[in-house]
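User: Fold this; tokens only.

Assistant: Input:
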Amino acid sequence: MFVRCGEQTLDLSEPRVMGVLNVTPDSFSDGGRFVSPQAALEHGLRMVEEGAAIIDVGGESTRPGAQPVSADEELRRVLPVIEQLHQATRAVISIDTSKPQVMRAAAAAGAGFINDVRALREPGAMEAAVASECAVCLMHMQGEPRTMQEAPSYRDVVQEVRAFLEDRVQSCRASGLAPERIAIDPGFGFGKTLEHNLELLQRLAELTRGGLPVLVGLSRKSIVGKLTGRPAGERLHGSVALAVIAALNGARIIRAHDVAETVDALKTVAAVRGGREGG
């Protein structure tokens, strides 16, 4: 399995880690730590050294209750970081955005992956993504970041998430996005209760049947806090445990804040499985 990211091809025969690089003042776990381009560059390169295959640069928080930012502000935050990372490393650079103008500018600056929590539903986003030659991750979210955790409700969360993602994949392919440029994300924590998140994780293999790589973002999220009782900065062990469970259930890209520990855990998973799921 692989995904084509512009001029690069990312081998997903074994699960790979996407390192989180938030250049925002208000992200739930590390807001404000990497707002300067130099601090962001250093942290991004550190995650590459630790084994991250992708660095996911985000300039707008999508935590529950987050307020939107303008495209100009988002570009001011992310472009210097993407440009410098692109020059300094061969890791795939991802832009975490829903705005078409940010997608276009990030791709021009060297990004090869678009991570969109709104699954290319914003006006112009589909066209921008198709033209970019980037890989795209389509994520499921019930509602909007400001309100998504108020009262999430499903009849069958896995069936509804799968149906949504299948519909978005069909729209992408009809618009000219090749399947080798598409990944999907069930959107843990985005309009889901603890019970919804656990059921999605338990039945994650049902989302892999379409043959597309599944990306999961569980690192330091409220699911870990609710299970362990720990604040965001003390959720390493729970996050790594969930990463291992996700990989065993078929996830191919693990989005993580703690890269070195997650890489080690996934190497162990791969050794135990003996490459049986490669392809």
